[in-house]
Amino acid sequence: MNPSENLKQIVEAALLASGKAMTLDKLQDLFDEMERPDKKALRKVLEELAEDFQNRGIEVREVASGWRIQVTRACAPWVSRLWEEKPARYSRALMETLALIAYRQPITRGEIEDIRGVSVSSNIMRTLLEREWVRIVGHRDVPGRPALYGTTRDFLDYFGLKSLDDLPTLAEIRDLDVINEELKLPEPDGEGAQTMDKEGGDMQEQEQAGSETGKEPGTAPDSQAGSGQESHEKEG
Fold first, then answer.
1. What CATH number does the domain located at 83-232 have?
2. 140-146: which pairs have CB atoms within 8 A and are 24 or more residues apart?
3. CATH class of 7-75
4. Residue ranges of domains in the chain
5. Which of 111, 156, 228, 232 shows a CA-CA span of 20 to 30 A to 218?
6. Pair 185, 90: CB distance under 8 Å
7. Cα–Cα distance between 42 and 44 in angstroms, integer?
8. Do the domains 83-232 and 7-75 match in fold?
């Protein structure tokens, strides 16, 4: 097979076999130095593949960690039934905390509590850190030097985003309970389900036994774990 004549097929096969996002540099490393395509040629075939996969059950998509093949969101409800374990849902409190970090980063835990009007449980922050959706990006230069939190590349990869600029505007955000139901987010190992009192607004996090894990990379929309924990700061 001539690499120059079959570049699209080689790239498609690499994305399928990899099972995770691949950068242009990683794709170039597949080739010998004499046959290595330039990044312009690779990007062209990736865009062609994205067009080829339109209106199909899987898609080629660029996320923060590179390019990957993934199941489309429309097909996710059926594909998710391949896994016997039913993923637990995260609480509204956790989703609100994650949203505040994403839109107002860098932000301290105290600032999150001021905005929400309730305390943020250690359980919530531990869950976000263990999922590697957020990380400590610094410390506020005030007494006590509280930690500043920001989102990671894994956060962008999981939600199918290339950068923070791809986040929906605040006006576009729908009810968090609806989003939570659609995503059916799995919990990391060792984390119990977190619940919220729907009537009063009292947030209550409960730990219970069980271990829920995420799906395999590239098998469901926005379920890809990226490499590294590089933070992306964006002033809210």
1. 1.10.10.10
2. 140/108, 146/108, 146/109, 146/110
3. mainly alpha
4. 7-75, 83-232
5. 232
6. yes
7. 5
8. yes
What CA–CA distance (Å, rounded) separates 89 from 77?
15
d(CA 113, CA 205): 15
Per-residue confidence at 220, pLDDT binned at 50, 70, 90? very low
Residue 159 CB-density burial (10 A; 0-12 exposed, 13-18 middle, 19+ buried): buried
Question: Does 181 have pLDDT greater than 90?
Answer: no
Is residue 176 pLDDT above 80, yes or no? no
The structure tokens listed for 225 are 């774990």
CA distance 190 to 207: 9
Gap between the Cα atoms of 151 and 98, Å rounded: 8
Q: Determine the length of the chain.
A: 236
Which contacts of 127-132 are long-range, i.e. CB under 8 A and separated by 24 or more positions?
A: 127/90, 127/94, 127/187, 127/188, 127/191, 127/194, 128/94, 128/97, 128/98, 128/101, 130/188, 130/189, 130/190, 130/191, 131/188, 132/225, 132/229
pLDDT tens profile 136-169: 999 999 999 999 999 999 999 888 888 898 888 7
Whole-angstrom Cα Rg for the chain? 20
DSSP 160: T
Cα 20–chain centre separation? 12
